[in-house]
Amino acid sequence: MNKIMLLEDDLSLIDGLSYALNKQGWNVTVAKTVTEAIRLWRGAAFDLLILDVSLPDGNGFDFCKNVRQVSDVPILFLTASDEETNVVMGLDIGGDDYVTKPFKLGVLISRINALLRRGRGTLGADDSLDSNGITLSLMQGQAFKNHQNLELTSVEYRLLCYFMRNPNRILTKEQIYGQLWDCDDNFVDDNTLSVYIRRLRLKIEDNPERPRKIITVRRMGYKWSVDV
Question: Which domain holds residue 174?
Fold first, then answer.
């Protein structure tokens, strides 16, 4: 049974979400403050964290930073604002995904399922992928640039896998969303993919401002460009 921590202080939302997630067969532990979340985190192992942003004694971003120092557990943010600054901040500090309030329960469950199901190294049976100076060790779920380890979130890793499995092929936004989130792309905020692409470029490109690996194909999508 997957164990999920829900960090949320809205009592009505806690009741509804706890019931719905438990009904899916997940074991949900609730924390109402950052302090309580830190205590629970130290005392148990979780498969997924769902973090609200605004809390009585801090915010979910601070807790995420602490977790990312020791773990790559999937993290999904619940945010009441769809402003790009909040989205970018949550993803830049190590969040894997976010859902904006108010949200449809089916969308949230789909996103949770995607994060739980698509762990590192689950995109295929090959031992490794290698191109453009990037190597993926699929059995270990690790990525390397010129033999140096890359610190990637689970979504960044899966996105890189998808690109490297499809060299020189234009991948549309809809195809990428379907691969990473397993849900209707209409439920995904428009700027989400561009944020992930930017983050990934910062980690793998020699010059992120002039990318040579992940190429933007105007009005079509993105391409993992490999010399033949």
Answer: 128-224
Same domain assignment for residues 85 and 177: no
Domain count, the chain: 2
Report yes or no: 181 and 164 within 8 Å, Cβ to Cβ. Answer: no
- CATH number of the domain enclosing 50: 3.40.50.2300
- Same structural domain, 213 and 194: yes
Q: pLDDT tens, position by position, for the chain (228 residues)? A: 799 999 999 999 999 999 999 999 999 999 999 999 999 998 888 999 999 988 999 999 999 999 988 888 889 999 876 666 777 788 888 888 888 888 888 889 988 988 887 554 444 445 788 999 999 887 777 899 988 999 888 788 889 999 999 999 999 988 888 777 655 545 555 577 888 899 999 999 999 999 999 999 998 999 999 975
Distance, CA of 67 to CA of 75 (rounded, Å): 9
- How many C-alpha atoms does 37 have within 13 Å on its Cβ side? 29
Q: The whole model's pTM is what?
A: 0.68
**CATH code, 138:** 1.10.10.10
> Are the beta carbons of 80 and 69 closer than 8 angstroms?
no
